[in-house]
Amino acid sequence: MKYTLDEHVRQDSRIPNIYRDARRLYGESDRVHHSFSHVMRDLYRALVIAADESLVNYSVLIPAVLLHDIGFYTDDFKLLGHDVAGARLAREILIGLGYDENASGAICHCIRAHKGKAEQPQSLEAKILYDADVLEKAGLVYLIFGGKIVCEFNETIHDFLAREISDRTTELNRGFYTRKARELDGGRLNQVRSILSQIKSEIEEERPDFCINEEALWMNLPAES
Ligand SMILES: [Fe+2]
Ligand SMILES: [Fe+2]
């Protein structure tokens, strides 16, 4: 089975406008992980999950997935969270493209809820977006994406591991919302959490050499000449 956008565009001619706006927005940034490539992976996963569900509103789901991480391209995402900041920007874009308040509200709920933090997913479309985004972390390839995230967020390995292990634990406790997402996961999210925990133990208990900084190399750091 093919999971493409073509049929959905025939049903809703506004989708190409959102697609073009999203591709341009994500393309303008140098974010190495939260790019249009990530959005395309989430979009594909969302279409696969949605095909297994009934009564999915694709006019809500597709714009929500396309716009779900645009919060990273706002000035206030560190203050508000990229989910809340993204929903605000998405609303401006959607109203500008002629969406009414109802449609815009349904799409923005999905964006605000895609981390399960600012808001919990209530609608089917929000649950599908949440699952599609969590599945990005449910595979060994995420250990490679993790390196990109460390670079993008300019964070230490310790901070990355603490945040990621905490998030994976919350996601595992919450579980996936859809049957298809559980099938696609196949235990991989738990495997990734376990490997991240092993890395944390290794660098904290056995191999501190992986996290050496200047403070560890000197008792008295030489002054700048
Ligand atoms: Fe996100
Ligand atoms: Fe995302």
Could you describe the 3D structure shown?
- The longest helix is centred in the C-terminal third of the chain and has 19 residues, at 188-206.
- It is built from 13 helices and no strands.
- By secondary structure, it is mainly alpha-helical.
- The mean pLDDT is 96.
- The chain binds fe (ii) ion (FE2) (2 copies).
- Residues 68-69, 82, 114-115 line the site of one fe (ii) ion.
Oligomeric state of shown chains: single chain
Percentage of residues assigned to helices:
55-70%
Ligand catalogue: fe (ii) ion
First CA to last CA: what distance?
Answer: 66 Å
Rg result:
20 Å
Q: What order do the SSEs take from the amino end to the carboxyl end, as H and E?
A: HHHHHHHHHHHHH
- The DSSP helix count reads 13
- Secondary-structure-based class equals mainly alpha
Q: What is the molecular shape?
A: globular
Average residue-wise pLDDT: 96
Percentage of β-strand residues: under 5%
Q: Main beta sheet, described?
A: none
Number of strands: 0
Catalogue the unreliable spans. none
Please tag this protein with its features.
225 residues, mainly alpha, 13 helices, binds fe (ii) ion
Short description:
By secondary structure, the protein is mainly alpha-helical. The chain is 65% helix and 0% strand.
Topology:
Elements: H1 6-11, H2 15-27, H3 36-51, H4 58-67, H5 77-80, H6 82-96, H7 101-112, H8 124-134, H9 142-153, H10 157-174, H11 179-185, H12 188-206, H13 214-217
Helix pairs in contact: 2-4, 3-4, 3-8, 4-7, 4-8, 6-7, 7-8, 10-12
